[in-house]
Design brief:
Helix content: 40-55%
CATH superfamily of the largest domain: NADH-ubiquinone oxidoreductase 51kDa subunit
Largest sheet: 5 strands, mixed
Structural class: alpha/beta
Strand order of the largest sheet: 5-4-10-7-8
Radius of gyration: 22 Å
Number of strands: 10
CATH class of the largest domain: Alpha Beta
Length: 386
Amino acid sequence: MGYPHKPHPKETVLLSQYFGEADARTYKGWVKRGGYESLKKALAMDPAAVTDEVKNSGLRGRGGAGFPTGLKWTFMPKEKKGPHYLCVNADESEPGTFKDREIMRWTPHALLEGTAIAAHAIRAEIAYIYIRGEFTEPWTIEGKRGNPRIKPPFPAVAGVFGKPTTINNVETLAAVPHIIKNGAEWYKKFCLSNPKSTGTKLFSVCGHVQKPGNYEVTMGFPLKDLIYEMCGGMRPGRTLKACIPGGSSVPIFDRAETESCLLDYEGVAEKGSLLGSGGVIVFDDTTDMVYQIMRLARFYAHESCAQCTQCREGTAWTTKILERILAGQGQMKDLDLLLDLADNMTGKTICVLSDSCATPVVSGIKKFKNEFEAYISGKKKPLVLA
């Protein structure tokens, strides 16, 4: 993504305050900026008090699910019979999402400080930070293949090595020091709409906008203003067609939904999608939505661990059908078949990768059915796929 942009006047710069400052990467540079003061404060507090402060702030998980962070911490056993673990999810493998890597790239000590505070709160002796596996040999913490596990038991009961474990996202933990330093009430003031969504959020914007990048705004900020003002709008001569607001695994917005959406958990849900990871993918009027949906399906088919039949077979089958439609060999019944496949793939597997493949397919057919029909009827020239 290159060098970070200068903050837009409408941004609420908190987590991204020091993006672009090379000195902020170092321990000395972080301490010079007030780093680790929050950790000192937290270590002087009872772990339960730290958890309560985060719980009262309204901070919700920024990895996608949006589950209340402090509440998650309370799930850890009160009686300590063995080690507790903290696992930090720094994988960020969902297409369209690239905010966690910027936190680690420019302010790694923000993550380390938040991790240390969280470890104190849940009384964990060890914290593991899982970074994308493509850059090293695919060994997991326990030396096993990286497959998801059936729940229950949930991680707070039996996680890493069968011991109580909490899992938090990078952006979530980077917000914790600010809450400890300034208090829950201060953090709750960052809210432009629904009081259930507090704080700031980093949005990774890519696609057909003039100024892609990471933008930090207060919860409840209009998606329309993010795209048209902060990101400079569409390319010259082009108009907005569609948008994925929360990473590639959430339902697609059409133009009207995009231009009327408020960026918080409730606002995006009201329009029929999910805030997710905050990966905003923007499409202009030149976009072939069938092709883009096929690309997403192909990604999830490639990423499937193949443990669940519905996912292993469903993602591959979905991709083949979409490829067939694009090649001009589709039939109208293929659309019903895709929807039927999506139903069988949703909510029936160990993890949500299968759901993530099905979601853009369902919303795409619902909102851009005419484009699918154009390929099937021969009105649109077939594509030769690589």
